[in-house]
Design brief:
Largest sheet: 5 strands, parallel
CATH class of the largest domain: Alpha Beta
Structural class: alpha/beta
Number of strands: 7
Distance between the termini: 73 Å
CATH architecture of the largest domain: 3-Layer(aba) Sandwich
CATH superfamily of the largest domain: Glucose-6-phosphate isomerase like protein, domain 1
Oligomer: single chain
Low-confidence stretches: none
């Protein structure tokens, strides 16, 4: 494990916005429960507007992710503490939401899986482990690695990103400190500076909220652009539970206007695929035809329906 002199780290922390003291909460220990809650809420309401100021950079990140996933590459998050947990959480939610292969979006956590539920002291300082995690994933030129570090300085994350870049991957860095603090090469830096926390240094608060927003914006937008939705409906979800099976039926009913029994029957014919069922109903197609047209349309429901209708129109003239 590599290390730096404590005094150097102390000086570095002094300069970080995420480690600064919030002047609006200096009397926190004198406040009532209601006053504390209103103060936290007031601070939290600032976050969406600050994230909005980074949309240009978030869009650049989406472009990298879409390109990677289209080429068979992956989006790999690397983080520690709250930042690492948020990356793992977003990665875990992509398969059930979008029917994505679990390998497409992955999370690397300093300290390993155990650190998801219990802090592993010193794991964030282990630069060698960060580099090795990227090596173990066999990261290559088709991949995108996104470092997530509220403070920007986390050694595990910095080393992971540096190793990914060395191996030819595209790199993104998400930090809650100013872009001017990014003194290392990355393809895209996303820097929503949400300001000092109500509880000094507790970056699970505003910083965590901002990070969560950015991650869900990136993966949601990327998968929409990859054809995982029809209109604003999830049509590639994985019906792996009773709730999701019923949601699948509701999606089919909402999109097509059919009743519950018809939606259930079509989903059965479609082997549980919402996309196939929707194309079957809206384009009056058989399951094999719907599957072929979806394949030809790279999974885009709207395009599959339009090509069926266009070809039928040509055949009738």
């Amino acid at each position: 494990m590599t290390s730096r002199p404590d005094r150097d780290i102390f000086r570095e922390l002094q300069e970080l916005t995420t480690e600064a003291r919030n002047p609006r909460s200096t009397d926190l220990d004198r406040m009532s429960a209601g006053e504390i809650l209103r103060l936290i809420n007031d601070e939290d309401r600032r976050v969406p507007e600050i994230v909005a100021g980074e949309i240009t950079y978030i869009e650049q990140a989406v472009d990298l992710v879409v390109t990677a996933l289209r080429s068979g590459g992956r989006l790999i998050y690397a983080g520690a503490g709250t930042s690492g947990r948020l990356g793992v959480l977003d990665a875990a939610e992509c398969p059930p939401t979008f029917g994505a292969d679990p390998s497409e979006v992955q999370g690397i956590m300093a300290g390993g899986e155990g650190a998801l539920v219990r802090a592993v002291e010193g794991a964030e300082d282990d630069a060698e482990a960060g580099a090795k995690a990227i090596q173990d994933k066999q990261v290559g030129p088709n991949d995108v690695v996104m470092g997530i570090a509220a403070s920007r300085r986390t050694p595990f994350v910095l080393a992971a990103v540096a190793e990914a870049r060395r191996r030819g991957a595209k790199t993104i860095y998400l930090t809650m400190n100013a872009r001017s603090t990014i003194d290392f090469p990355v393809d895209v830096a996303i820097c929503p500076v949400v300001g000092p926390e109500v509880l000094m240094g507790s970056t699970r608060m505003k910083s965590g909220m901002g990070q969560r927003m950015v991650l869900t914006m990136i993966t949601t937008t990327a998968y929409v652009l990859l054809g995982k939705t029809y209109e604003n409906m999830m049509v590639d979800l994985m019906a792996t539970s009773a709730k999701l099976r019923e949601r699948a039926k509701r999606v089919v009913m909402t999109v097509t206007g059919v009743d519950y029994e018809t939606a259930e029957a079509k989903l059965k014919d479609a082997n549980g695929s919402v996309k196939v069922a929707v194309v079957m109903i809206l384009a009056k197609a058989t399951a094999p035809e719907a599957i072929k047209r979806l394949t030809d349309a790279s999974g885009f429901v709207r395009n599959a329906i339009e090509t069926i209708e266009r070809d039928r129109g040509k055949a009738s003239t």
